[in-house]
Design a protein that fits this description.
With 799 residues, this protein is of the alpha/beta class. Helices cover 33% and strands 19% of the residues. It has an 11-stranded mixed beta sheet, with helices on both faces. It binds zinc ion (2 copies).
Length: 799
């Protein structure tokens, strides 16, 4: 018996070829009816036998177009009306509906074939795209997603493109950025002096790159600065001009996955990400000995992983095909400022860094940096930075919640904003200390607010009184006339992981990172917490390290090394100081680690000045200007400096990254003899430091023992509390969870105890994911569920 079904699809169902797919599937299934785009998604009615309709919905969920993502499918059965055939009806706009938008997508294989086919009318056209690929988020000004609302509005379709756009059978049906050389954007080459050259743009740029020059090019969400990655001279030249720290790793774009395999170990999981339509930067383990001649050691000095991506725009494909070289492809900006996205901005800010610019006239409306992640053999991955390819895809929560705007911390700043059961986490904005990051925040927030009609009832931020983001939140709360809430940093990390996994607390959580303001005024970061969004307790933590000069000690890990010795092995201090000053310490580390880069730009990186050493020794002796911190990141810094690996840090997390890289330099001797001691909720590292200080020679061995010690310390601390000890699941979050070895050791340690370790998958464990957790804690507070006590949140009243 025939029935009529009214079906609503929600999710990413517009601008991704969804209606033509539904049309084809209806005809295949022998069902009649109609479909239309509504403000909330896609609405359709189908008539036919009920089992056929059920099968239809299943196939839409499972076999939909590559970019579609059905989050909700609501089906209601009604009396049949006797539809004939299947029609696509005009779009319908409703007030207050929420439309989701697809992220930017890497060039698809069909477009790639056409790009390199001399017979195709888009042969070598650097803006080729279709319904399955191309820009989305970065070109949309407002929704619904139609061409006049995008930065393609200024490019009227030529008859040939128009015909494809209107033809429901065509791959470019309703592909809003569709274009060709006749009607679409143009690419040109400009000198740093602003002269537009009439040359073959791609081959001219490729020639400069082959000659070791640097070129700025406009990508999907902003500019990159590129140079050949196999030349020391080119890479060092770029570093000097970009004022990039000598050591901070640069990402490379490789011509193919085969080149990636020549340089790096590529796990199955990593390959999936590399060739996916997201095409993020994936951190791949470098093959030992593969470097000389193929990759400059100055691309990722002292590290054992390389940030690799494959071409993701037609322009990249053309350029990489022409040069055939691995290219450094670093965000177009100075240090950790937001990525440059506008032609004039590029002329002003990037011209001094490069020998030429590849520009085009398709404006970037929303800037969006490259995403960065690691992918392990076991299929798990950790996201360092979420941006292009992910934004503005929302996270769906199990239930509706109050509308909140939340800001993360000052490093790797993002915001999160909720509506109904969706949370939108912004792309990576940069570090908040830069003025430009504030503008990027305001601009991106405005973009999200407009796209998704966000109306926060509260604004929330990190509790740290010194954070720039806390001031931005205060300003916004005043503008919006809503309450401001302050959330404890590590509670937010715990809540972010619950939100991502959909798990319900309370659960024990290992939260480890570099810094976070604690409720007792000290710095936290090596914590065992227990709780959920509404309430959270600190069960145990690492023994605090007195940081000479406070958090700034993170830039001078040798300060921390001296402090660790002062506490645990004062008799070793003068010997360590002597080795520091003579340079013996750095030499020993270099000898045992076989560092690929031994020349350093500034001798003080391996040999601090005597006056500075005296100053730190006197601070420790007098007990002045020492700020206590329980952060694991600082303990990593101190260990790296005790071993001579990283004495001074020039970028965030340099010491922990270099310490982890050291693991590949020697065999794993297993757990240390000095097992972690937990007393009164405090994990004491002093016995470990004593053992290390007695015999520090085996540098790589101590790096291994330290990783084991950390994993065991957190697992041992679970015993301090019956609830934590009785839980079958343990959460792990915070920036230290980007350490692949620590994650693996924790997982193994949990498995041996019959526990399962829960880690992040899609949300950054570091501060990039903080805004999501701040939002969830604030939501619980707004709902009143936080009343049952103990939530690490402070309300700052109404404005
Ligand atoms: Zn395509
Ligand atoms: Zn055209």
């Amino acid at each position: 018996m025939a029935v009529r079904a009214r079906i609503e699809f929600e999710g990413i169902v517009q601008g991704v070829g969804f209606r033509p797919f539904l049309h084809r599937l209806a005809e295949e299934s022998g069902l009649s009816g109609w479909v239309l785009n509504s403000s909330a998604g896609v609405l359709m009615e189908l008539e036919g036998e009920r089992p056929a309709i059920e099968e239809y919905v299943r196939r839409v969920r499972e076999d939909g177009p590559p970019l579609s993502r059905v989050l909700v499918a609501r089906v209601r059965y009604l009396a049949p009306l006797g539809f004939q055939g299947f029609t696509i009806r005009p779009s319908r706009k409703e007030e207050n509906a929420l439309t989701l938008l697809c992220p930017d997508v890497a060039t698809c294989s069909d477009c790639l074939r056409e790009l390199f086919d001399p017979a195709d009318r888009r042969f070598c056209y650097p803006f080729i795209n279709c319904t399955n690929c191309g820009p989305r988020y970065t070109i949309v000004r407002s929704l619904p997603y139609d061409r006049p609302q995008t930065t393609m509005a200024g490019f009227p379709l030529c008859p040939a493109c128009e015909a494809e756009y209107r033809n429901v059978e065509d791959r470019r049906y309703h592909a809003q950025p569709v274009a060709c050389a006749e009607c679409g954007p143009t690419l040109w080459f400009e000198t740093p002096e602003g002269e537009r050259l009439s040359v073959d743009t791609i081959s001219h740029a490729a020639g400069l790159l082959r000659d070791g020059k640097a070129v700025a090019l406009k990508g999907l969400g902003g500019f990159h600065v590129a140079c050949r990655a196999d030349s020391d001279e080119a890479v060092l030249g770029l570093r000097r001009r970009k004022q990039r720290s000598f050591f901070k790793p640069l990402a490379v774009m490789l011509p193919s996955i085969d080149v990636a395999r020549e340089l790096c170990e590529v796990s199955g999981a990593a390959e999936e990400w590399l060739v996916s339509h997201i095409r993020p930067i994936v951190l791949l383990p470098l093959k030992p000995g593969a470097v000389p001649g193929k990759l400059s050691a100055f691309v990722a000095p002292n590290l054992d992983r390389l940030g690799v991506m494959l071409p993701y725009t037609p322009l990249h494909h053309l350029l990489l095909a022409e040069t055939g070289l691995p290219l450094v492809m670093t965000s177009g900006n100075l240090s950790d400022e937001p990525i440059v996205a506008d032609n004039d901005e590029a002329r002003t800010r990037l011209s001094p860094l490069v020998d030429g610019l590849l520009l085009h006239d398709r404006p970037i409306h929303a800037r969006c940096d490259d995403s960065v992640l690691t992918a392990d053999d076991d299929g798990s991955c950790a996201v360092l930075r979420q941006a292009r390819g992910f934004s503005p895809y929302p996270l769906a929560l199990p239930e509706d919640g109050p509308s909140v705007l939340a800001l993360g911390g000052d490093i790797k700043t993002t915001f999160a904003a909720s509506r109904g059961h969706f949370v939108f986490v912004s792309p990576h904005l940069g570090d908040a200390e830069h003025l430009g990051t504030y503008s990027a925040f305001r601009e991106t927030w405005e973009h999200y607010r407009t796209l998704f009609d966000l109306r926060p009832e509260a604004v929330a931020c990190d509790m740290h009184p010194g954070y720039h983001t806390a001031r931005w939140a205060e300003e916004l709360a005043a503008e919006l006339r809503v309450p401001l809430l302050q959330v404890q940093h590590h509670h937010a990390h715990l809540a972010a992981l619950l939100a991502e996994t959909g798990l319900r607390g309370p659960l024990p959580a290992i939260v480890a990172d570099g810094t976070g303001y604690g409720t007792d005024g000290t710095t936290w970061g090596g914590e065992l917490l227990y709780g959920d969004e509404a309430a959270c307790e600190r069960l145990a933590h690492l023994r605090t390290i007195p940081l000479p000069g406070g958090d700034a000690a993170a830039r001078e890990p040798w300060h921390i090394a001296l402090s660790l010795l002062h506490v645990a092995a004062p008799e070793r201090m003068s010997g360590y100081a002597d080795d520091l000053l003579s340079g013996r310490l750095a030499e020993r580390a270099r000898g045992s680690a076989g560092y690929r880069v031994s020349d350093e730009p500034d001798p003080s990186y391996s040999r601090p000045r005597a006056a500075d050493v005296r100053l730190v020794l006197s601070m420790l002796a007098a007990g002045v200007n020492l700020a206590p911190s329980s952060a694991l990141g600082r303990l990593f810094d101190g260990i790296a400096a005790l071993l001579g690996v990283t004495l001074r840090a020039t970028y965030e997390a340099q010491a922990p990254m270099e310490l982890e890289a050291l693991l590949s330099c020697g065999p794993d001797p297993g757990a240390p003899e000095a097992l972690p001691v937990v007393e009164g909720g405090v994990v004491d590292w002093a016995p470990f430091i004593q053992a290390l200080a007695r015999d520090p020679g085996d540098t790589a061995g101590w790096a291994w023992r330290f990783h084991h010690w950390v994993a065991q310390a957190f697992l041992a601390s679970l015993a301090v509390d019956a609830r934590a000890a009785g839980s079958s699941r343990v959460l792990a979050s915070g920036g230290c969870m980007l350490n692949n070895t620590l994650r693996r050791l924790l997982r193994q340690g949990c498995a041996a105890r019959g526990l399962s370790l829960v880690v992040h998958r899609d949300v950054p464990p570091g501060d990039g994911g903080l805004s999501l957790g701040v939002l969830r804690v604030a939501q619980a507070h707004v709902c009143g569920s936080a009343q049952r006590g103990g939530a690490l949140v402070r309300g700052i009243g109404n404005h």
